[in-house]
Structures are given as C-alpha cells and as structure tokens.
Amino acid sequence: AQSVTQLGSHVSVSEGALVLLRCNYSSSVPPYLFWYVQYPNQGLQLLLKYTTGATLVKGINGFEAEFKKSETSFHLTKPSAHMSDAAEYFCAVSNANTGTQFYFGTGTSLTVIP
Amino acid sequence: EAGVTQSPTHLIKTRGQQATLRCSPISGHTSVYWYQQALGLGLQFLLWYDEGEERNRGNFPPRFSGRQFPNYSSELNVNALELEDSALYLCASSFYVGQNNQPQHFGDGTRLSIL
Fold first, then answer.
1. Does A40 have pLDDT greater than 90?
2. Which of A1, A98, B32, B95 is the most exposed place for a label (fewest CB within 10 A)?
3. Buried-state track B16-31, b at ≥16 Cβ within 10 A, e below 16
C-alpha cells in the first residue's frame, strides 16, 4: 500500500532561517515523489519531483528535497525562508503500480515570522 | 500552454440542491482527478477518470459522481447537497496511465458553499 506521512501540521520559522518540512512515505515498489505548494485560495503548484536518478532534487523558489531510501523520506528544505514562502505544502507519492494516481499527505502549513 | 481550468470559481447552493463543477485539462492530458479540500482536512481523493472511464473512486457516497467527455474535459456532480459538502474542489490532470512518473497539474478550484 502507498501512503505519505507529513510530520508537523504547522511549522513556524523566522525569516532567513532554514526551512525543513518532513515527509515519510510507504511504497511497495520504487516510489515517485512530489512536493506541491498551495497559496491561499489557489490550486497546488508543483515544487519539485523525484522519479529516478540523482537523489537530491532542486525545485522552484530555492527549494530542494533529498530522497533517502533507507529512511523512506523525502524532506523538503530551503536554506533561507522568505515571507513569500508562507503557504501549505503537500508531499505526494505514486509508483509504477498506482498508475497516475497520487497519494497525498495531510499537508504542512508554513508560517514565516518577520 | 493553458493550464487546468475550472468553472465556476465560486458556487453557492442550499441544502438538497445539486451542483455541477467543470474542469478542462491541459491539452494532451487524458487523466482527470477530482479532490475535495474541506477546511482542516487536507486533500481527499474523490474520482479519477482516464479515457472516458472511471479508474478509481475515493471513500465518498454515491451522490458524488462525474464523467469525462471525449475531449477529456470532466464534470463533477454532487446531488442532495449537505452542509459538510462545503469545500474547495480541485481538479488535476496528467498524462495517460502509462506515464505514471508525471506530475499532476492542478486548477485553482471551485469554492462550493452550502447555505
């Protein structure tokens, strides 16, 4: 079975501080992993994805994530938080057996403190 | 390239009425997904259509239904509306089933409010 766990439904960081949003997955076969961001009253926007190859993936807006198979994790990081990063973040998993259906985590709300 | 478009942006209904939400996928995408995002509940998977067929369904009652048209656009119908149906309904699209390492692309949603 496929599933995603996002630890911490709410995360607060100071402007300029490191952002770390946690995602752990469960997948019966090699996973495809995605991070999305949602700003208020908008849809989800793809930040980055991991399918195969390099385990450190760089995305938009300075975000990156590292696929760690041994830890079944795909944590999202950004070295320096900006006020505009305040949003809801979702991690999702799919694999060759799920077709194009995704399994989403419950989301993490990021607050950036000035 | 046009993104996923959803209409209407907002929809206000009363209990017991029926609502129809529409979605046009990105050109070339054959799969369409519907999600419900109620306050504080994250994304709840509703329905998945591909090539005009329902591929999977989430844990929702039968009064939530939909269809996909030959041009791959889709409708979500909600009958006998209840207050708890108030939510943001998101549509997403992706390439066909064989390309399952591709991301889903989302529209901005329809805000359904039940009075």
1. no
2. A1
3. eeebebbbbbbeebbb
